[in-house]
Amino acid sequence: MEKTSTTVSQGMYIVFGVVFAGLFAMTIMLAKLGKASWIKIRALPALEALRDSVGRCTEMGKSVIINPGEPSGYQTATMGPAENIAHFIAGNALLSYIAGMTAKNNVKLLVPISFADTIAITQETVRAAYIKAGKESAFDVSNIYFVASQDAAMNAYMNDLVIRERPGLFVTFAVSGTSFQQDAMAREVGAIVIGGVARVSQLGPKIALCDYVLMGDELYTAGAYVSGDQSRISTVLATDIVKGVFVTLMIAGKIAITAGSPILWNLFKA
Predict the structure, then answer these.
(1) What is the pTM of this model?
(2) Sheet containing 109-113: which strands, arranged edge to edge?
(3) Is pLDDT at 228 greater than 90 in this prediction?
(4) Class of CATH domain 45-227
(5) Which of 72, 139, 163, 201 could form a disulfide with 130 if both were Cys (CB 3.0 to 4.6 A apart)?
(6) Nearest CA-CA partner of 173 in 142, 202, 144
């Protein structure tokens, strides 16, 4: 009996995997065919705050500092490659969005980076945003630069930079302890602090230190929203459907087990 239930369980996992993979493939295919324009993402408060904060920097003549994340090295070891790449893609999309606004408003943008292997793509992301805004001549590649990969060194530099620049807006999508200290220093100089972190375990300090936070999957959703890429927006819908199915199954299983039915228990146990 134990052998049979395990086999059934494994079979169900395969079925779910095939169904969910098909769901993702279908939504992306619909997006590529232009049939997914009905999929919309609601505006997130943090994104609205970004627009307002850049406007504030324009009025006050202050700069914007953004740490778009730490997409290699430390994060690869602690977050895992898949989460690491998704975090980097979302952070870069938001960096492009912010760079476009700073270009249009002639606001100084500084992007210190903690891992040298991402410098080229980060510079090109900002350059593309300036070109799109028609301000290529205002792009200064020296404002996107590598600082240090060690937390202590990065933290010391960022604290000094914040004190010297006294930015109007400080944005960070990094997840190490260093980023929390940077958020705290930015608050001390009166900057609006907006943060985003995909790892739920890191949310506490972000919520305490930031004025606005992109929490958990909101970071990926915001990246899809500002990119305007219908394929990415469709993937957000597919992910939400998958989550809804799993939550429904969990609730149904709890009710069934509480009522004394062993059916779902035998179906899903490994």
Answers:
(1) 0.74
(2) 144-146, 109-113, 64-67, 169-172, 192-197, 212-215
(3) no
(4) alpha beta
(5) 139
(6) 202
